[in-house]
């Protein structure tokens, strides 16, 4: 039940995911379940009478109506330390996409748009945005740009190998979706700012949100953003999704007002810090309310991620 819920974008509260901690208790209001995995955690007589079950240890035998705790806010997701392996590295031009795999019994619990510290050794670690959907916490993706070349990034591009063991610590960060909003969504990204945006979009898709979703990727005139085909595949598959590449001008306005798809939308912006504040100003001048503009404050997350704390 827990796996199915997460796959559908429902952030059920859970801890160990293997029947030991009791954190995933849900109340069955209607329908039948069967025990599908052994649990060491013992439910009390009262909890059994109240139809409580451990979501990580049961499967549905019919349609279900359940009462459950959901984690909708970053404060409800604890920092975890998890071992993982590099499952695959794809390097193209100046971008590396690293696939990380945890044991099935220890998925990372996070909200779309959050960050993670990846330690390649005792001395070599860096904070990265998680680029994958929280619906699968065992298969994580991060994106690294070749420049600026930090020691960890140099290691990724020069010598990181498949099956290397890494230590993960996180998540941190508050660049997450307003889950209660029904407004259209506009995502604006440049460079590896696409990583947290990809996670947010995959999460919105897994929730089957029906409002219009726009993705604008800023990039040099003659360039194609990395994973552009992936973005086009979203557009091909979804009626409510629009993908557009925007030529980023070296100076002057970043976006013309006519390029903004919807001034009533929620805006999620992940750009290099040098242009992020400029774009924020442009959005405000275009009449978009301040509380509808969410920016990825990457610098803050990086420092807090290393310390394993949530940003203030
Ligand atoms: S998550 Fe720990 S018992 Fe289910």
If you had to describe this structure to a student in words, what would you say it looks like?
It is a single chain. By secondary structure, the protein is of the alpha/beta class. The protein is built from 7 helices and 16 strands. The protein folds into 3 domains: 69 residues, Beta-grasp domain (Ubiquitin-like (UB roll)); 96 residues, Translation factors (Elongation Factor Tu (Ef-tu), domain 3, Beta Barrel); 112 residues, Nucleotide-binding domain of ferredoxin-NADP reductase (FNR) module (Rossmann fold), CATH 3.40.50.80. The strands form 4 sheets. It has a 6-stranded antiparallel sheet, with helices on both faces. The chain has a 5-stranded parallel sheet with strand order 14-13-12-15-16, with helices on both faces. The longest helix is centred in the middle third of the chain and has 13 residues. It is globular and about 70 Å long. The chain binds FE2/S2 (inorganic) cluster.
């Amino acid at each position: 039940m827990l796996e199915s819920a997460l796959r559908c974008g429902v952030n059920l509260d859970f801890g160990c995911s293997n029947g030991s901690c009791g954190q995933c208790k849900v109340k069955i209001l209607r329908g039948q379940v069967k025990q599908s995995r052994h649990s060491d955690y013992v439910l009390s007589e009262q909890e059994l009478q109240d139809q409580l079950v451990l979501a990580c240890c049961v499967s549905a035998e019919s349609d279900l109506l359940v009462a459950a705790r959901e984690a909708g806010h970053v404060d409800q997701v604890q920092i975890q330390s998890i071992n993982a392996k590099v499952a695959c590295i794809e390097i193209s031009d100046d971008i590396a996409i690293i696939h990380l795999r945890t044991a099935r019994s220890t998925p990372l619990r996070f909200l779309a748009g959050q960050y993670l510290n990846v330690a390649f050794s005792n001395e070599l670690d860096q904070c990265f945005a998680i680029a994958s959907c929280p619906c699968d916490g065992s298969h994580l993706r991060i994106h690294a740009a070749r420049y600026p070349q930090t020691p960890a990034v140099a290691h990724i591009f020069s010598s990181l190998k498949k099956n290397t063991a890494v230590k993960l610590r996180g998540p941190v960060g508050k660049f997450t979706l307003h889950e209660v909003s029904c407004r259209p969504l506009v995502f604006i990204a440049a460079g590896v700012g696409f990583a947290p945006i990809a996670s947010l979009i995959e999460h919105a898709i897994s929730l089957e949100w029906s409002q219009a979703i726009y993705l604008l990727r800023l990039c040099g005139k003659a360039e194609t953003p990395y994973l552009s085909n992936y973005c086009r595949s979203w557009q091909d598959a979804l009626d409510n999704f629009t993908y557009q590449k925007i030529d980023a001008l070296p100076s002057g306005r970043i976006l013309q007002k006519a390029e903004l798809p919807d001034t009533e939308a929620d805006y999620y912006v992940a750009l290099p810090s040098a242009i992020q504040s400029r774009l924020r100003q442009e959005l405000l001048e275009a009449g978009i309310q301040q509380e509808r503009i969410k920016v990825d404050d990457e610098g803050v997350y990086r420092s807090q991620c290393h310390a394993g704390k949530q940003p203030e």
